[in-house]
């Protein structure tokens, strides 16, 4: 069983992941209303990814016979001053999540909860990638704020066939029913 302090924080983190999911949906909708399909698609994908992170955490708690307590989340920001502001918000959010993930890892180590420490390693790697890609996107959006087509073209060029990460933790419910 995972250390109780870690379990409590991981349950909180599930809420943070769902809040990030909601925020990314709101950002995607904002770009959809501006007819920026590449930006909208990027943030819809980000939303699904955040939801999957929450469900990975749920599965870990289930696997360790720990209590799962799904918290509620505050409403996301739905209005933005310009096309730059949502990406700025997303970068701040990713940096905050990185801090939260690092804090969870620190608690696992303090509690000598080595399985939970190992579980968190994938999320640390993921957050490095998320902060880097969102930082790059912010640079591009700031530089091209007056040229939406350049932003959309950048995303088309950068789009790659994303394969599932075989090292990712299992997602609760992913194998259920059909």
Give the radius of gyration: 17 Å
What is the total number of structural domains? 1
Amount of helix: 55-70%
| Sequence stretches where pLDDT stays below 50 over 5 or more residues | none
CATH architecture: Up-down Bundle
- Name of the CATH homologous superfamily: Ferritin, core subunit, four-helix bundle
Characterization of the model:
This protein has helices at about 5-35, 35-65, 85-110, 115-145, 150-160. The chain is mainly alpha-helical. It has a single domain (about 5-160), classed as Ferritin (Up-down Bundle), CATH 1.20.1260.
Question: What's this, in brief?
Answer:
The protein has 178 residues and is an all-alpha fold.
Keywords:
elongated; 70% helix; 5 helices; Ferritin; mainly alpha; 178 residues
Fold topology:
Elements: H1 4-33, H2 37-63, H3 85-110, H4 114-143, H5 148-158
């Amino acid at each position: 069983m995972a250390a109780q302090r870690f379990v409590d924080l991981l349950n909180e983190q599930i809420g943070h992941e769902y809040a990030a999911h909601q925020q990314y949906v709101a950002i995607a909708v904002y770009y959809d209303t501006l007819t920026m399909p590449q930006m909208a698609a990027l943030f819809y994908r980000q939303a699904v990814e955040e939801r999957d992170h929450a469900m990975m955490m749920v599965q870990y708690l289930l696997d360790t016979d720990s209590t799962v307590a799904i918290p509620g989340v505050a409403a996301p920001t739905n209005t933005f001053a310009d096309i730059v502001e949502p990406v700025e918000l997303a970068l701040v959010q990713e940096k905050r999540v990185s801090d939260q993930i690092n804090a969870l890892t620190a608690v696992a180590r303090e509690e000598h909860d080595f399985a939970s420490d190992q579980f968190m390693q994938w999320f640390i790697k993921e957050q490095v990638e998320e902060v880097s890609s969102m930082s790059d996107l912010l640079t591009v959006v700031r530089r091209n704020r007056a040229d939406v087509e350049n932003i959309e073209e950048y995303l088309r060029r950068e789009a790659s066939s994303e394969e599932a990460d075989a090292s990712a933790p299992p997602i609760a419910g992913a194998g259920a029913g059909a």
